[in-house]
Design a protein that fits this description.
InterPro entries: Cro/C1-type_HTH, HI1420, Lambda_DNA-bd_dom_sf. This is Putative addiction module antidote protein. It comes from Aliidiomarina taiwanensis. Pfam families: dnstrm_HI1420 (PF21716). There is one protein chain. With about 110 residues, this protein is mostly helical. The chain has a domain at about 10-85. The protein is built from five helices and no strands. It has helices at about 15-30, 35-50, 50-60, 60-70, 75-85. The protein is globular and about 50 Å long. The chain starts with 16 loop residues before the first helix and ends in a 27-residue tail after the last helix.
Length: about 110
């Protein structure tokens, strides 16, 4: 018996804003120190949306957005922030829940003016 398979495309399963948010959160958690993984996740979300409209909403050209989110692309933080905002998302930074010193900053080596 022959089994036909189809290449998996996550973009086909990102139907709602919640889907997009959960997908990006999972990808960021999985990415570790690999920013290319996060850029790839953004490109998947961009494909799930209307790429032309997303580019307009982000203040970019469609070609510029494709280039920035391509495997060879290296988008600036500003571009990533614009794309996130155009997707209706907000970038945040937080300490990991498992960090033993969440509320302490180490000031050694810092000099004041």
């Amino acid at each position: 018996m022959n089994v036909k398979t189809k290449r998996w495309d996550s973009a086909e399963h990102l139907k709602t804003q919640e889907d997009v948010q959960l997908y990006l959160e999972a990808c960021i958690e999985e990415a570790g120190d690999d920013p290319a993984f996060i850029v790839h996740a953004l490109s998947v979300v961009a494909r799930a949306q209307n790429m032309s409209q997303l580019a307009r909403d982000a203040g970019l050209t469609r070609e510029g957005l494709y280039k920035a989110l391509s495997p060879e692309g290296n988008p600036t933080f500003a571009t990533v922030a614009k794309v996130a905002k155009a997707l209706g998302l907000q970038l945040t930074i937080q300490a990991p829940a498992s960090s033993p010193s969440n509320n302490q900053l180490h000031a050694s080596g810092i000099t004041g003016a």
